Amino acid sequence: MGAFKYERLNKSDAALIILDTQEGLFSLVRDYDATQFRNAIYAHAELGKIFNLPVIISTSTETGPNGPTPNEFLQMYPDVKVVKRQGEVNAWDNEEFVNAVKATGKSQIILAGILTDVCTAFLALSLRDAGYGVWANHEASGATTIDIRENANDRMRAAGVQVVSFFAVVGELMRDWRNTPGAAELFPVFDRFFPAYGMVARGHREAVHKGTILPGQDILP
Amino acid sequence: MGAFKYERLNKSDAALIILDTQEGLFSLVRDYDATQFRNAIYAHAELGKIFNLPVIISTSTETGPNGPTPNEFLQMYPDVKVVKRQGEVNAWDNEEFVNAVKATGKSQIILAGILTDVCTAFLALSLRDAGYGVWANHEASGATTIDIRENANDRMRAAGVQVVSFFAVVGELMRDWRNTPGAAELFPVFDRFFPAYGMVARGHREAVHKGTILPGQDILP
Amino acid sequence: MGAFKYERLNKSDAALIILDTQEGLFSLVRDYDATQFRNAIYAHAELGKIFNLPVIISTSTETGPNGPTPNEFLQMYPDVKVVKRQGEVNAWDNEEFVNAVKATGKSQIILAGILTDVCTAFLALSLRDAGYGVWANHEASGATTIDIRENANDRMRAAGVQVVSFFAVVGELMRDWRNTPGAAELFPVFDRFFPAYGMVARGHREAVHKGTILPGQDILP
Amino acid sequence: MGAFKYERLNKSDAALIILDTQEGLFSLVRDYDATQFRNAIYAHAELGKIFNLPVIISTSTETGPNGPTPNEFLQMYPDVKVVKRQGEVNAWDNEEFVNAVKATGKSQIILAGILTDVCTAFLALSLRDAGYGVWANHEASGATTIDIRENANDRMRAAGVQVVSFFAVVGELMRDWRNTPGAAELFPVFDRFFPAYGMVARGHREAVHKGTILPGQDILP
Amino acid sequence: MGAFKYERLNKSDAALIILDTQEGLFSLVRDYDATQFRNAIYAHAELGKIFNLPVIISTSTETGPNGPTPNEFLQMYPDVKVVKRQGEVNAWDNEEFVNAVKATGKSQIILAGILTDVCTAFLALSLRDAGYGVWANHEASGATTIDIRENANDRMRAAGVQVVSFFAVVGELMRDWRNTPGAAELFPVFDRFFPAYGMVARGHREAVHKGTILPGQDILP
Amino acid sequence: MGAFKYERLNKSDAALIILDTQEGLFSLVRDYDATQFRNAIYAHAELGKIFNLPVIISTSTETGPNGPTPNEFLQMYPDVKVVKRQGEVNAWDNEEFVNAVKATGKSQIILAGILTDVCTAFLALSLRDAGYGVWANHEASGATTIDIRENANDRMRAAGVQVVSFFAVVGELMRDWRNTPGAAELFPVFDRFFPAYGMVARGHREAVHKGTILPGQDILP
Amino acid sequence: MGAFKYERLNKSDAALIILDTQEGLFSLVRDYDATQFRNAIYAHAELGKIFNLPVIISTSTETGPNGPTPNEFLQMYPDVKVVKRQGEVNAWDNEEFVNAVKATGKSQIILAGILTDVCTAFLALSLRDAGYGVWANHEASGATTIDIRENANDRMRAAGVQVVSFFAVVGELMRDWRNTPGAAELFPVFDRFFPAYGMVARGHREAVHKGTILPGQDILP
Amino acid sequence: MGAFKYERLNKSDAALIILDTQEGLFSLVRDYDATQFRNAIYAHAELGKIFNLPVIISTSTETGPNGPTPNEFLQMYPDVKVVKRQGEVNAWDNEEFVNAVKATGKSQIILAGILTDVCTAFLALSLRDAGYGVWANHEASGATTIDIRENANDRMRAAGVQVVSFFAVVGELMRDWRNTPGAAELFPVFDRFFPAYGMVARGHREAVHKGTILPGQDILP
């Protein structure tokens, strides 16, 4: 099977990019349910807050049809200067953007954007070419069809991009539930953005505090 | 919206039919995953035991390719004489079968069989024609394609058949978790046949007995 | 095609029921993505607030595995006394619940609950039997499989239940964007619960305020 | 099976409605591929031209996020005055719209719009209530999810709405390929809007004019 | 649940219609895999041979793009005069066709054709209107999309058409495996057209003739 | 993108393997429709006849539940001695099988079998390990679920197996429609096993011989 | 993660191939909706016009069932001599075709054709073998099943082919919206071939020119 | 195609890991039907018993929401000390776990766990990094969506992990049905966990013992 080197995300080596996640472009995304996708892009943005990562936000011709970044992201990161590209499709063709990435001094980039096959993939490939490790949060990048998404993700994989879920990014960055940030900080995040887990945590809390055993429950294996 | 009369299953009025659920015919069923379908036919058979219903088992030419009823069903109901049809496709064309149904004295029939579009549908339509209320447990009837299943279920619905899930049958028969059978008898059944619920019940039991609260859990909404 | 009478929801005739939407039962729902379903149940709960409808919340054995109602619902409706059923599967078998429904004095019931095939369907059928108009918000009821959901929705439809989306409920209740509640109250609701629309509204706002035309845009048809 | 009366579309009895097919609302439609849906709404609009039907176009708050009707529709029907509803969700609540429908003097309405569960369904139900025959072109109505679309179509069906394809509408209106409009007018329409058929017609034309038989072809059955 | 009358196919009352199953139109069918659909249309044609039913074949403008009926059908039924419609979309608008149906003296029509939403549905609705029982073999009618097929099948169902599988048609006509035609005639048919069953029958044959028991097999339940 | 060497199938270098395509095992295959899969395994077997390839047939414990090879294959290849493995799961562990492969003197193996994840994948990996080029005809290998099939195909791909369709195998072996075998031999094969193409060829033949142009056809682009 | 070199499309280095996109073969394509696929092949052909690329059109036995290239392509490229292959399946086996590719002097080939698993894949692999960079526009290649398409795309990927969407090709070639061609030329193209984006651009234009803010819109986040 | 070395599972070199398969986490798994997944995790656990492999069980914060290992696993392996991780997400970060793996002295790890993208993938990548061969039983690892599962499996594949089915693991470990464990031990296992095969084996047993040939069966090919 050959040798393999597992490069893990390290919260002190990582930066977060929010790429072309714009209110107009949102309407082009049809590979995920709109509710599910909206959740995913807000969860992606939250990663910077949780793990105190440097954050880069960039937009493409935002006064045109692509529209602006959601205001919530700007409020979350008031000190981040949005790199407003006036024409470059691939953010790496924009000098201000490249400088912003380099200025972070980080070697691991967590990335998501709209559209998966263009904005996300082009930048991911350029970052790989420039020697960065790239973790593409696939849940927070959107495409016009599932077919296009899957081919774009395969293209990134072939370039050594780690195509990963939101929870995988959190897991690699957190590493241990006893760390800070750890369980105390993450459970509220999961409750907002990962309700499959959040509801299990709520149900468990209630069971510990007030739960009673029904007839039949205690004879289960 | 017009008037509607809700006829509910009543455990004292109901009989259970296991129709052509045979080891050879099992291989024709491709509208459900094989594991899921095996679970559903055993769950269906269990209904008679749980609610103490009269049970009728019938097979079609069982020494031929259709094969026999699973032995477990015969062991569950050693006193039930299997109606072994030598040729009739529609069980209602078989006098012994009709007599067996009539002998139960029941007016509500819970039914499942292989194949949905032939064995189950034909009998369901004949039962409706004969004035019975029919509850077709759709999870425990199998077809060669999903397309065929859906059209068959629609055909039954048009005849006034209630096309219902296993859990809906249990819910209508049990009515109240405090009854007998109720929670005490049903949780072990769910643990075997309805693991989505069984695992929640197990997790809750453990939480009540030994659960602890993790940092972050108690600040959830 | 025969005659047809369109009975529309009327905000002065309608009551809202939140049925068995409990933190433990949430984990049984697998016919919708968890994020999408969580959004739907909160949107359903919001309907009472938006249109000032009488609200009835009921739970089934909530100290057991089914767990409690999400706290947010209790906070939204502090004056609503939760009907905590100790055993009845069909809420209509519970006298306190029936009285609560009757006490609203309404003839149109908007309903959603977990699980679609049991809690939602049983109550919907009983309400129809009792003469109520029933609007089942299909997005906010969950089932263990899509197959089970679809059969349960068909069963309700056969009983004259209107199986409708969240947006259809809003549309029938609001009737005119110029009403109160109307556009002013609903856009923020859509932004939270119906982001496909919310993002279009945001993008449009930005275009009106700061939008510029890109080369090529003005020569579109 | 009971008696059945087949009411067919009749080109002298029919009117066409283009409802809320607006450039902003287009982005909410995710139950069809965007290319497929764009094709369907233009094909729907074309029906009026082909069969010389009275056409009614209505929009909902079109200077807001919903946006305007595509210009092509306005150019196709320069004499049609768009009924610009300022607030009514259900077009039947708008007097100008009702008058426009009544002014056609037609009893059969061919309808499509955005969104299926709200604009299309509400009007379809109201039209049925008012005694009209309704043919809902399901390909040209869009919803945010397939699940919502299917429930909305079922709701319309329960009200006696004919939920039909574009080609079924054409077939009922044309009746005979030798009529006018018939093959001569329709093949160019199919070539634009129904390419599965258009390409077969093109290939057949070429074969008649220049086709040669390959070895092996003439020994086919 | 109301009363229901089950009208069953009766081989002495039934006629078979092969409608517009033409080599050019075959290419429009994309709701089934091409191999699966080819199998279904040949199986449908075979029904007449098996049960000695009167057969009616009709085509629409067959020298045009729609193309001819497969030669195999003509060879199976050399005495059937194909009703070659020169323009009528709905076969019931063609006098020769109506006369052919009436000449059979049968009251039950088994039908399939291309396309489901036009040729099959229009004729099925006209036949229902004319008082016939109609069994639409859904596997042998094809549409351009699954979405179109499902709406067309629902439309037929609403008119009292029995939308049924090939095997359901066989089962209703055969009634008893001991009849003629029965097992002796049908197993070879299933082996050709219903391989899920054919292969089970082959495997069983081999097991009876030469099968041996492997270690472990005899301790199964 | 690095260098790439395209190794093509060469009919003088290739041998065909039919692996564990047995009548009992057929019933385990649920990742393809049964009709579609039966077609694919017969098409696969035909490859040896068409291109005069050495053929190896092997079975696993064929008197047990796995059952025998379909008789048609034995009749097609009366001179091929079936390698009847008494226990080895991986055919490459059976010396007689290895010798049979080596005796062909070929370096390119075309392979399909039941089940994809076990019989096909194990042999494919062993053949790659032994230095053979391997073309796995994915249509003619079957698995119990689509999920299992996809992972098995990916596993083979990672080992350098060419996972290809039936038509791709034919295309690489034939190379030119003017060769022998070429169009003359292949069109009848496609008519039987690849009806999407066969029906186009039939329709084209008819158009050349008897086709006429309908009004409207000649004004298409 | 190893090193990666991102080779981007460069409009001065690229040529466009339209391969076997023929009116007869169109009918074999069933992995995409026919409307969606027709759109994709016309969009692919447009690429040459937009970016002024050398274009090569080739067909396979075009007077036979495969049929001719759509006339629109010939009209778009009146100076391109179609390479009419009389038998070679793999276009690279045809000397005239190879010469045509070489005559372009380009090193980057953008390719699409029918069928994906044969025409597209064979040529793509040969081009890779010959040292070309290959961008396969997956939207404009068609296969008989999705399963076949996916395996063919994976095969190309394993050979270093970039399997990319139409929009990704445009994005790599255009690079900057301010270039020529850029926004001015591309928006009309998107309006025709990429309506998800075109409709957003139209809606935005209208909002800038005539949009008004509805109550509620300005209080969105 | 390059050289390939097939490393096969060897029952004397392999150890089994059951990772975070906990009663609370079970509720997060929505990429498989709950019944199917429950079956898969019990089948995975059984592998240690069947092949007498060293087994390692580990859990993550099991008194919290994740819940405990199912009791059945503890009873199957009473001598296995569960490695109860108090916080490490990646089990390889836990020294006790690493020591447990090393103590087995095995070089091949068979692994499954909840969730696929986090627990399973992180450990699999770390094991590959540490030089182990890894066989990830994909059926027994669960994720919240299919999309997440597929990307996680692709990530593991890129690291050289063998992503395999339960039956593939059994096949590689057993190698020959005549071995011990072999047919005698495995058929009962398949009957419980792989019913598609178990039912074929049962049907075959019955046919050998009591089967009779029906008219028509012996004339099948």
Task: Please outline what is shown here.
The structure is a homooctamer of 221-residue chains. By secondary structure, chain A is α/β, with parallel strands linked by helices.
Overview of the structural elements:
Chains A, B, C, D, E, F, G, H: InterPro entries: Hydrolase_YcaC-like (IPR053152), Isochorismatase-like_dom (IPR000868), Isochorismatase-like_sf (IPR036380). Chains A, B, C, D, E, F, G, H: Residues 14-165 form the Isochorismatase-like domain. Chains A, B, C, D, E, F, G, H: Pfam families: Isochorismatase. Chains A, B, C, D, E, F, G, H: This is Isochorismatase-like domain-containing protein. Chains A, B, C, D, E, F, G, H: Belongs to the isochorismatase family. Eight copies of one chain form a homooctamer. The longest helix of chain A is centred in the first third of the chain and has 18 residues, at 34-51. The first copy, chain A, is an alpha/beta fold and 221 residues long. In chain A, β1, α1 (34-51) and β2 form a beta-alpha-beta unit. In chain A, strands 3-2-1-4-5-6 form a six-stranded parallel sheet, sandwiched between helices. The first copy, chain A, is built from eight helices and six strands. Chain A has two domains: 14-174, Isochorismatase-like (Rossmann fold, 3-Layer(aba) Sandwich); 183-213, no CATH class. Chain A is 44% helix and 13% strand. Chains C and D meet through α5, β6, α6 and α8 of C and α4 and α5 of D.
